[in-house]
Amino acid sequence: MALNNTYDARLQQETAVGAGVQILLLALLGPAIGMGVAGWLSGLAFAFATWAVLSRALHRSALRSFGPANRVTLGRATLVGGVTALVADSFQSTPPVTLLVGLTAVALLLDGVDGKVARRTGTCSTLGARFDMEVDAFLILVLSVYVSTLLGPWVLLIGAMRYAFVAAAHFAPWLNAPLPPSFARKTVAAVQGIALLIAGSSLLPHPAELTVVLAALGSLVWSFGRDVAWLWRHGRISAAEMAVEPDSAPAGTVQAKVLELAAR
């Protein structure tokens, strides 16, 4: 018990340091750009929420070390917190586009680094993968909010689609079944951040930015549609087939996962 408490204390120290770095970044950005109340509140809220959620997840996990990959992801989360503050502040004053694009670009460039670090150091974990995914999703949401002020509210569909999928899974448990790995899915996800970054930079003519973001949205709709169709075929149908012999579903398969969810 004492050893577990020691590990937990070390993990909590890591999250506290992350929150501290986030606040330090805000302290540097605030005076430099004359950040308003909205920016400060959004940045601080992001720092507190990240610390609280991550601390709780680590406490419930079996991890004994935070690990180098999670440190990279935490660094990305710090950058995303800065982007969040800048986007919130943009509703009150002209945003520093160069700074916004710079922070976003670094966060996007680091998006595959944590995974590579985890594989090379043998520190892959379910929590780390989920942490990485949530940071990515929130960055896309924040960017879509910013770009929506330039191109129109329809851009919010890009940031909201993943959260809508998660909400739908509460009413349709078959959507929670695991999906097979897909390079196309990863590519489409990466395209969203790049497209929003291009549009947010305002370097291209308006029609070109519109085309880029529309293409990104179209690819995202295709990707989610393909995954939902796969889950429908291999989730609901497989569950119905296995209902006659529920004990015959091999552990770890889609059928077993669906049957487990249906039993809850």
Automatic annotation (TrEMBL):
A Pfam family the protein falls into: CDP-OH_P_transf
Domain of life: Bacteria
PROSITE patterns: CDP_ALCOHOL_P_TRANSF
Gene3D superfamilies: 1.20.120.1760
Membrane-spanning parts: 20-53
GO BP annotations listed: phospholipid biosynthetic process
A GO CC term attached to the entry: membrane
Keywords: Membrane, Transferase, Transmembrane, Transmembrane helix
Entry keyword Transmembrane: yes
MF GO annotations: phosphotransferase activity, for other substituted phosphate groups
InterPro entries, per the entry: CDP-OH_P_trans, CDP-OH_PTrfase_TM_dom, CDP_ALCOHOL_P_TRANSF_CS
Family, per entry: Belongs to the CDP-alcohol phosphatidyltransferase class-I family.
Protein name listed in UniProt: CDP-alcohol phosphatidyltransferase family protein
Organism of this sequence: Streptomyces griseoluteus
